[in-house]
Structures are given as structure tokens and as C-alpha cells.
């Protein structure tokens, strides 16, 4: 193959590779994918997960065979004897402190309790992040629907403006009507720009929660309307009591403090330190001698009997018990409040769908046809159109509020209600 043919083949392959990987490809995103991505990439969540590694490091240390390293001490000295001259002696001492009275087991239990508490705290942070991402997703989806509606309204006002110009040119409508239609169209274009800006800002917030680049293209996939489940407040309260991670973390903190107090009480028992030494002694009538010996030292707990630590931990224990009660009451309040908001939002959607929604699109068609045929004037059309636009936007907002209420209820329960 010639050099020219190789260059040509390289160009073809390069173009094919660029074509198969478009730089500005739009990525479709569902709410489930958004939550999964946030749990994997959210910077705040990634940072707090390191607390688990910190706690596990303490647990690893608690599992050591002995947390005290042996101590090796060596001494050497030179002696000048008048009869024999300079002589050298040395001594080597090895000492080891040993934990007694089951301190190692209690230390391991306290460290394990700490790990489980931190893991529950991380789970609670995941619960909060999941709620934030879900709300942000449906907020962006709501603003997307509003933007689509604003664009449809802009198209409608464009048709009405063109019809007004035609009526004015035909001599059946005054210039004021044509000007008013032009103003109306300009106002609708401005509302479209505002809706576009709000939607893009919502996408920025969503990308931040996902840990994505600010310029990453997203196409939201999903529906605001879903099939709501029938839920009962007592069942929700029971589920929340069983699965809320912050309540689990509060209870595990009580267990951790208890384990720490048991360890502190056991630490009052002093640890013995065993010693062994080897020494050479050259002074004496018989010449050099070797001495091997050992000993044990035990500190006497006469003054420091961990009084301060026990008082501090007693306060921590009472605080953690009160915290369990406080978290329980907060959960009950959150669930009840979220349940009432969920029921109200659901009723609002049902009222729109039962009494309003089917009539809106039909009335839009009627007023436009009536205006084109001269059966109604522009002022009457504007009044009716404003009412219909308000109703449409209110329905979209009610769907968004229902999704937010549904998310708040799931977050309050600690999972799917």
C-alpha cells in the first residue's frame, strides 16, 4: 500500500470515528437514572462517605493483637579499673504493656458501634440527596412543560396577530385591534424567553447535584403525571420508624456511648508492663558475669480513676437518649406534614383532570375560530385566552407540586411510601 493510500485510509477512519462519537450528543435522563448518578457522583456525598473509612480505620486499630508496641532500651558504659584498665559493660531491656480485663474486646465493640453509626449517617445523607435530586428533576420537568406551553401560546398569538392584520387590511377591524394583537404577540415571546431561562437554570441545579459538567447536554425523559398509590398515615408512620436512617443513627449512637462507657470503666483496671533485661558486668574478682532478669510494673489507680471521662460520657449518653426522642418526634411531624401536602396536591390534580382539563383545549380552538370568523372581538378573545392560559399553567404547576409532595413524603418516610 502506498503512502498516499495510507493517508487516505487514515482520514476515512478519523471521519468515521468522529461521526460515531458526536461531541454535542444529547443525553436522555430519567429520574431513576438521575438518582443513581447522584448516588455515585455527588461531591458532597462522596466526601461524607469518607467518614466511614475514618471510622473503619479506628476499627482496624481496635483489632490489633496489642495496641501497645514493645519497648527496647539499650545502655552501654565504660569503666576504668586501676588494675585492668578500661572495661565496657552493657544492658538491654525489653518491656511490654499488656491489656487486661477484656479491654481489647470492649475497644473493638466500641469501634464497631461507631462504624455502624457512621454508616447510618451516610445512609441518611443519601436519603436527603435522593430527595433533592428527585425534586430538582421534576422541577426541571415542570419548567420544561411550561416552556412547551409558552411556545404553543406564542404560536397561537402569532396566528391571532396575522389574523388581526388581515382583518385590518380587509377593513373589518380597527388599527387598534391590530396593534393590540402585535403587543400581545410580543408579550408572549417575552414570556417564552423567561420560561427558557428558568428551565436552563433548573438544569444547572440538576447537573450540580449529579456532579456533572455545567455544559453537559440533558434531555429529560419522563412524565409529570403518574399513577398515585393509596397510602395510609399509620402505615407511613410505622415505616418511617423502622427505616429512617437518622433514627437508626441516633439509636446506634446510644449503643456506641454505652460501649465506650463500659470500656472506660474497664480501663480503671491498670495494665501491667512486663520487663526483661540482659546485662553484662565485668567488675569483680571473678571477672565478667552475665545477668538475666525480669520484672513487672503496675500503675496504682489512686487518683485518676477515669472520673472525668465517665461524667462526660454520662452526659453524652443522656444527650443521645434525648436525641432519639427528638428525632422520633421530628419524623412524626415530617411524615404527617408531608402526608397532608401529598393528599392536597393529589386532590388538586384530580379536580383539574375531572372538571377543567378536557375543556381547555376545546375552548382554545373555539375562540380562535370565533375570532377568525368575526363572532367575537379581540378584547373578548384576550379575556377568554388569559383564563385558559392560567388554567393550563395551573395544571402544570399542580402536577409539579404533586411530584414534589410525593418526593417529600418518600423522603420523610425514608423510602417509597
From TrEMBL:
Residues 1-25 form the signal peptide. Keywords: Signal. The keyword Glycoprotein does not apply. It comes from the Bacteria. It holds the Pfam family OEP. Belongs to the outer membrane factor (OMF) (TC 1.B.17) family. This is TolC family protein. It comes from Candidatus Nitronereus thalassa.
Amino acid at each position: 500500500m502506498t503512502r498516499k493510500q495510507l493517508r487516505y485510509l487514515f482520514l476515512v477512519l478519523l471521519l468515521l470515528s468522529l461521526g460515531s462519537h458526536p461531541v454535542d450528543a444529547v443525553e436522555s435522563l430519567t429520574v431513576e437514572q438521575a438518582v443513581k448518578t447522584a448516588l455515585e457522583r455527588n461531591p458532597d456525598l462522596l466526601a461524607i462517605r469518607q467518614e466511614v473509612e475514618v471510622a473503619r480505620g479506628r476499627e482496624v486499630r481496635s483489632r490489633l493483637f496489642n495496641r501497645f508496641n514493645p519497648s527496647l532500651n539499650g545502655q552501654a558504659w565504660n569503666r576504668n579499673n586501676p588494675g585492668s584498665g578500661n572495661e565496657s559493660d552493657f544492658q538491654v531491656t525489653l518491656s511490654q504493656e499488656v491489656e487486661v480485663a477484656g479491654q481489647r474486646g470492649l475497644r473493638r465493640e466500641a469501634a464497631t458501634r461507631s462504624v455502624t453509626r457512621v454508616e447510618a449517617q451516610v445512609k441518611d445523607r443519601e436519603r436527603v440527596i435522593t430527595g433533592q435530586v428527585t425534586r430538582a428533576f421534576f422541577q426541571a420537568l415542570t419548567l420544561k412543560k411550561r416552556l412547551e406551553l409558552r411556545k404553543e401560546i406564542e404560536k397561537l398569538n402569532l396566528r391571532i396577530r396575522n389574523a388581526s392584520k388581515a382583518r385590518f387590511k380587509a377593513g373589518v377591524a380597527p388599527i387598534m385591534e391590530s396593534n393590540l394583537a402585535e403587543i400581545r404577540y410580543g408579550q408572549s415571546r417575552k414570556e417564552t424567553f423567561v420560561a427558557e431561562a428558568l428551565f436552563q437554570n433548573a438544569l444547572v441545579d440538576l447537573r450540580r447535584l449529579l456532579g456533572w459538567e455545567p455544559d453537559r447536554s440533558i434531555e429529560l425523559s419522563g412524565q409529570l403525571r403518574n399513577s398515585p398509590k393509596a397510602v395510609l398515615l399509620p402505615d407511613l408512620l410505622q415505616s418511617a420508624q423502622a427505616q429512617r436512617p437518622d433514627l437508626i443513627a441516633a439509636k446506634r449512637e446510644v449503643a456506641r456511648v454505652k460501649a465506650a462507657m463500659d470500656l472506660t470503666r474497664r480501663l480503671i483496671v491498670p495494665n501491667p508492663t512486663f520487663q526483661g533485661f540482659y546485662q553484662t558486668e565485668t567488675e569483680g574478682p571473678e571477672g565478667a558475669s552475665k545477668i538475666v532478669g525480669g520484672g513487672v510494673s503496675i500503675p496504682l489507680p489512686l487518683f485518676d480513676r477515669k472520673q472525668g471521662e465517665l461524667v462526660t460520657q454520662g452526659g453524652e449518653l443522656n444527650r443521645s437518649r434525648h436525641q432519639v426522642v427528638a428525632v422520633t418526634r421530628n419524623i412524626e411531624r415530617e411524615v404527617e406534614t408531608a402526608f397532608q401536602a401529598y393528599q392536597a396536591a393529589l386532590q388538586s390534580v384530580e379536580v383539574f383532570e375531572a372538571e377543567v382539563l378536557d375543556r381547555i383545549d376545546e375552548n382554545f380552538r373555539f375562540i380562535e375560530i370565533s375570532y377568525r370568523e368575526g363572532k367575537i372581538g379581540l378584547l373578548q378573545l384576550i379575556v377568554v385566552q388569559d383564563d385558559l392560559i392560567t388554567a393550563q399553567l395551573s395544571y402544570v404547576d399542580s402536577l409539579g407540586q404533586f411530584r414534589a409532595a410525593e418526593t417529600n413524603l418518600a423522603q420523610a418516610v425514608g423510602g417509597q411510601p
